[in-house]
Write a structure and sequence with these properties.
single chain, mainly alpha, Hypothetical protein af1432, binds fe (ii) ion
Length: 190
């Protein structure tokens, strides 16, 4: 977060937003016309919509996670005057691996989802959405530094950061929800 150049109050706003499940559920991004102009075709595509069939973190589906990462990367790149259209599109597609990673290893023998899914997502992005070379590179390198080759474009780092930030917030809100639904009643009886 420190390296993003955000002011302390902006950091707080981003933290609050990323942990707020309601933002995604009420489809608040649709109100941002400039953002929608960049991504509408992807948002309405059946392959993209099918990502709601797979959970990513906690109760956040892959589609919801990708929208979060996309919108945050987009806002960041707009703020810096970078290529916000490419980043919005690549981030929407960055986890387009199209399977349930929770059961993937058992079903396929691939125990390295963390390393292999960027390439699967990139190939799907090319196949279904004719992703550009720049978008493909951002998708392929989004797990950096876990996967060793860093992004070629500065916008790729916005996705790397937004993905990690949103993932932590999603896991955090899952833990919070679990506490409210399970642990608190057990401890307090309400
Ligand atoms: Fe990913
Ligand atoms: Fe992700």
């Amino acid at each position: 977060m420190e390296r993003t150049g955000l002011k302390p109050e902006e950091r707080e706003a981003v933290k609050e937003w990323a942990g707020d499940e309601r933002w995604v559920k009420r489809e608040a991004w649709k109100a941002d016309e400039a953002y929608m102009a960049c991504v509408r075709d992807i948002m309405e595509h059946p392959v993209f919509l099918s990502m709601d069939g797979y959970y990513q973190h906690g109760r956040t589906t892959c589609r919801e996670h990708c929208i979060r990462v996309s919108y945050l990367s987009y806002r960041l790149c707009r703020k810096y005057g970078w290529d916000y259209r490419s980043v919005a599109r690549a981030a929407l597609l960055h986890d387009l691996f199209l399977y349930d990673w929770h059961t993937h290893a058992r079903e396929t023998g691939d125990h390295f989802h963390g390393f292999t899914h960027p390439r699967v997502a990139m190939e799907n992005a090319e196949r279904y959405f004719q992703a550009t070379e720049k978008e493909r590179n951002m998708i392929l390198c989004h797990m950096w530094p876990l996967t060793l080759i860093p992004p070629r474009y500065k916008e790729g780092y916005a996705i790397v950061w937004a993905d990690k930030f949103c993932s932590l917030a999603e896991v955090g809100s899952g833990v919070r929800e679990w506490f409210i639904n399970n642990l608190r009643p057990a401890l307090t009886g309400r």
